[in-house]
Amino acid sequence: MMALDDMLLAAHAADDRPALVGLYAQAAETVNDLDAACFYLTHAYVFALELGDTRATALHARLKAEGREA
Questions:
Q1: pLDDT value of position 2
Q2: Can you tell which superkingdom this protein's organism belongs to (predicted)?
C-alpha cells in the first residue's frame, strides 16, 4: 500500500482535488501536533471550498473548534 505522503504527491500530480480533500483530512488525523493537524485541515478545507464539496462544512467546523477562525 502507498504511504500517505506518496498518495498526496500523486494526487497533486494528477490534480485530483476530490482525493486531496480526503487525503489532507486523513493527514490531519495522523499527526500529534495541533498546528500540523490544522495545517492539513486548512488545505483540505480550501480544496473542498474550491470544489463546492459538502465536506467543507465539517472541515470548517473542525477548524473553528480548534480556534483557527472566529
A1: 76
A2: Bacteria
Residue 70, in any domain of the structure: no
User: Which residue pairs, CB below 8 angstroms and at least 24 apart, start in 31-34?
Assistant: 34/66
If the chain, 70 residues long, is cut into consecutive pieces of 10 residues, what is the mean pLDDT of each piece?
Answer: 90 97 96 95 97 97 90
In the chain, the number of structural domains is: 1
Give helix 17-30 / helix 4-13 axis angle, nearest 10°: 160
Q: How is residue 33 annotated by DSSP?
A: -
Separation of alpha carbons 55 and 43, rounded Å: 12
Q: Which three cell numbers stand for residue 69?
A: 477562525
Overall size of the chain counted in residues: 70
pTM: 0.92
